[in-house]
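User: I want to check something. If I give you two sequences, will you return the structure for each one separately, not as a complex?

Assistant: Yes, each is folded on its own. Here is the first sequence with its structure:
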Amino acid sequence: MKTDNDKTTDTTAAPTTDMRMDEVNRLKEDILACIAKRGSNTTFAELSKYVEGFNGEYQYNTPYSNLIIWSKMSKDAVEAIYQLNREKRVILSTVSIWVYIYEGRGLNVPVAKRLRAYKKPHWLPTVINRTYHPADKPLSHRERVAELRKLIR
């Protein structure tokens, strides 16, 4: 499926090269850091604003035909979100359109009312949350204070 300005990427992404893998891994860490900094229910609009290298010309789709989660993402960002979701380090949740209206960002296609295939592109407003993963080492009190000081600066 190809839209006017967006290249599409299936969420069952193909294997990546070593150079791209480094960028994908960097994006994964930056996305997790952004979610930790921004708090729960981080929108894709926030990720596109705060994560360097997130923006591009691809879109993240659902398995349903013409059901888009977010567009204007880089190919590496699509791969990073896909891998984080597959590794169960993040979870995607649908939200009200008002979350994106509050931020002043959204997609210029109709909003999906339910999970299903559509004849024309529809947007599924979605947020991303971090889940606990055994690879995520909990921070000590001293490390948390240091992280907070970095945020204040």
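And separately, the second sequence with its own structure:
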Amino acid sequence: MPIKARIDMLSTGIRTPIGIKVFGPDLKVIVEINNQLERTLRGLLHTRSVYAEREVGGFFLDVTPNREAIARYGLTVRQVLDVVESTIGGMDVSTTYEGRERYLINVRYPRELRDNIEAIRDVLVPIAPLSPRPLPVSPGGTPSGMSGSSPTPAAMPMGAAGGMSGGIATAGDAEMGGATMAGAGMGRSVRPNPGKGQLASFVPLGQLARVETVMGPPMIKSEMGSLTGWIYVDIDTSDVGGYVSAAKKLVAHEVKLPPGYFLKWTGQYELLERVRARMAWLLSLIHISPRVKLVRGFTMFGMSFVYVILQDGTDLYLSLIHI
């Protein structure tokens, strides 16, 4: 049986003697038609097995960037996705050579920091360093809008400056007291920046993108410009043409195809129909020709040939089809 399946796959593209291809623009509708065909053909006489490929059934992790939030922090979509690649998916940074063996060095977060949705949403994305803006100074040398007893901007905590504590962890906070600021529901952490006068800032990935798990097709097949779904049919009879004729009548009665969707019967049946059409044309030509003396058929080099001898002794070789 495995050898037969391989031969069928090489000759027809289908691993079974009969196959059905469903064409259409929507994979979800194709899946519904596949299931209907599977249920319908399972009860047909001489059907050994019917299997419809599951076009939708894979689980995927989708990270959809929020462009408005990304622009608000002065980032680009490429920068956010680079963080996703390097921390979650992994990034090849170098190659190690051990004799004739070669191994890529892949760097990413440890498993405990990326094995659930919440952990992935907490991945920190660096944003542009913030430079402290000096307050305007009055003619007397005192910053305008501040009394003499008020602390200077250099000594003022970052959380007290309006607009600077809105969900961003900075290294300036650590320099002014060594305390870690924890924003509400954000799990921020302070990381020092060695650059003098610059504040290293981070924002969680969950605020810049939508992270979720979705179901989708594990593999998408297309043919003749349309999406396709395949059904494999194995039979216990050698009458492939008779079985397909009965199956077509049953499918036409039981399965209603939406507009824009159609079926194509393939496998050994497709080869049978092709040979039948060519033989009908050839035999009709031979019967009407008074010069034909002998007709023989044979197979050689993977081709089917018809050997025709005419009355005047001329030999004709007509190729029919690749096997």
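Because they were folded independently, the notes below concern the second chain alone. The two ends are 19 Å apart (CA to CA). The longest strand covers residues 226-235.
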